[in-house]
Amino acid sequence: MRSNPRSRWTPAVPLSFLLCFLLIGPSPALGQNTITGTVVDVSTQQPLAGAQVVIEGSQLGSLTDNRGRFLILNVPQTTVTVEVIMIGYRATSVQVSAERPAVIELSPTAIDLDEIVVTGVVGEQQARSIGNAIGKIDAAAMQEMAPSPDVQDMLSATVAGVRIMSGGGEVGTGGITRIRGVKSMTLSAQPIIVVDGVRVNGGDNDSDLACGVGTDCAQMPSRLDDFNPDEIESIEIIKGPAAATLYGTEASNGVIQIITKKGQRGAPRVNMTVRQGANWYPDVQNLWPTTFYRSAAGSIEEVNVLALDARDEYGLLGGGRNWFQTGHNQGYQAD
Q: 255-260 and 192-195 as β-strands: parallel, antiparallel, unpaired?
């Protein structure tokens, strides 16, 4: 008997299914690009932490870490334009690619802020909102370049409209401070002084009731010179009668605002200052006025008291002395 051979069954695969598998299978996933890089300073090449990196035209972005690195995930394109923003640096836009890490350099730039003026009222005010003429002195910087012995010497010929009239030269006396001249023939013309928002005694040579215009009050000290210039951070001078809107009618002659130094973070620092100098007259005997007297014979005699006393010709006050000697000034300060 003849047997039939076994038949084999082969499954049929549609051609359309094979074409779809070939087209979809090997293609990469879309929107899975990664942008990485480092943000550094252009001059020092040091990494910058906290810089904001944003892809332009999207909401994708990141912040740099302590090493200046950033990472942006799920970027739809392989090449994008990113904008880097950081306070104190100029905003920069560059093109970066997902194929290699980027190095973005930022250049430092100055930041223009609204000027703040410390006033006697509660809080601070912007300079542009006050509307007054304000002169400012960076006392700390001035003391480093050209130290001044007192505050009046620091103000003299430094701020426009401020005039310091020197006294008679007596020990301890000060000058007269005027801001834009004299406004009254009978009332005091001195400006008020405010230190860190607190008004202080600002008396000068023209502060007494008996001392008006044309009266000599050169023996009085100036309270403005009681402040140590090395302890002052800055001085702001508000000029004109408009200062009365901040400090009252007494400020119609102007306001001198003194801002003292404050403590700062960091290691302790001690400043030692030594000042020395000398005071003398170049030729005191010839500069001294000549004295005339009538002798016993009735003639008029010319006498230079200093020269005669130095030679001990008449024995005045013991004789043989120099009335004027070179004075040695010295001062020491630590802060």
A: parallel
- Answer yes or no: do 131 and 55 share one domain: no
- Token digits for 317? 């006050």
Q: Give the side-chain half-sphere CA count within 13 A for 35.
A: 28
pLDDT at residue number 122? 41
| Cβ(299)–Cβ(293) below 8 Å | no
Task: Give bridge partners of residue 195 from the DSSP assignment.
Answer: 198, 258
What distance in Å separates the CA atoms of residue 155 and residue 237, rounded to the nearest whole number? 10
Is residue 27, in this structure, part of any structural domain at all?
no
CB 37 within 8 A of CB 64: no
User: How many other C-beta atoms are found inside a 10 Å radius of the C-beta of residue 311?
Assistant: 11
Residues of the chain with pLDDT under 50: 1-13, 15, 17-29, 120-123, 207-210, 212-215, 218
Radius of gyration of the CA atoms of the chain, in A: 41
- Residue 228 CA to residue 333 CA, distance in Å, equals 10
Cβ–Cβ < 8 Å for 82, 93? yes
| Nearest alpha-carbon partner for 227 in 253, 189, 201 | 201
Q: pTM of this prediction?
A: 0.45
Q: What residues pair up with 273 in beta bridges, in sequence order?
A: 333
For residue 141, what are the domain limits?
A: 116-260
Instruction: State the Cα–Cα distance between residues 97 and 32, nearest whole angstrom.
Output: 13
Domain C-terminal end among 106, 139, 159: 106
Q: Is residue 165 situated within a structural domain? A: yes
Q: Residue 18: what pLDDT?
A: 44
Q: What is the pLDDT of residue 307?
A: 75
pLDDT value of residue 45 = 92
